[in-house]
Amino acid sequence: MQHDFFNPPELYSPPKGMYSLVAKSGNLLHISGLLPLDKNGEVVGLKDVTAQYRKVWENIQIALKYVGADLKDLVKTSTYIVGRENIEPVRKIREELNPNPPPASTLILVAGLANDKCLVEVDAVAIINGTGV
Q1: What pLDDT sits at residue 27?
Q2: Beta strands, E only, 7-103
Q3: Which residues, 6+ apart, have CB-to-CB distance to 61 below 8 Å?
Q4: Does residue 132 form part of some domain?
Q5: Is the residue at 107 inside a domain?
Q6: Number of separate helices (H) and strands (E) present in the chain
Q7: Alpha-carbon distances of 32 from 47, 71, 78, 85, rounded to whole Å
Q8: Which of 56, 57, 114, 126 has the fewest CB atoms below 10 angstroms from its CB?
Q9: In a domain, 78, yes or no
């Protein structure tokens, strides 16, 4: 089976090209942990977990769209949050943004992320049925 790796041009580039943002094998799609970064790699919503979480979900949608998928194709997400006080605000936004039915999900409280200006990161798994890329 062929494996394809992508860095959608609408998203930021991984540091030094160390990894791919999207990996596709057959109809299985893995999305690397996405941060609340704009196309230029700048943090969106500095110190604002709700703005950051919205940007992360926007980035997930960009990654999915790039391979011909959308939020309904998600089967699993893992959310990493800095600070216990940020859990409830993220849950509220998640209720609004999650597809219906929502995918399986794990929420992990962490001491920090690789980019210390980021408060949230989400990775995802999707199964797609379209032809996509």
Answers
A1: 94
A2: 22-25, 28-34, 74-82
A3: 70, 71
A4: no
A5: yes
A6: 2, 6
A7: 22, 15, 10, 25
A8: 114
A9: yes
For residue 99, what pLDDT is reported? 86
Give the pair of three-digit tokens for residue 116.
Answer: 């210390």
Tokens of 105: 């999900």
What confidence tens digit (pLDDT) does each residue in 1-27 have?
899 999 999 999 998 889 999 999 999
Rounded Cα gap, residues 62 and 60, in angstroms = 5
29: CATH: 3.30.1330.40
Domains identified in the chain, total number: 1
pLDDT tens figures, 70-113 = 999 999 999 999 999 999 999 999 999 988 899 999 999 999 99
- Of 55, 61, 74, 69, which is closest to residue 117 (Cα–Cα)? 55
Q: What is the spatial distance between Cα 54 and Cα 67, in angstroms, rounded to a whole number?
A: 21
Rounded Cα distance between 12 and 40, Å, is: 6
Answer whether residue 133 is part of any domain. Answer: no
Report the distance separating Cα 50 and Cα 59, nearest Å: 14
Owning domain of residue 62? 3-127
d(CA 55, CA 48): 11
CA distance 79 to 37: 16
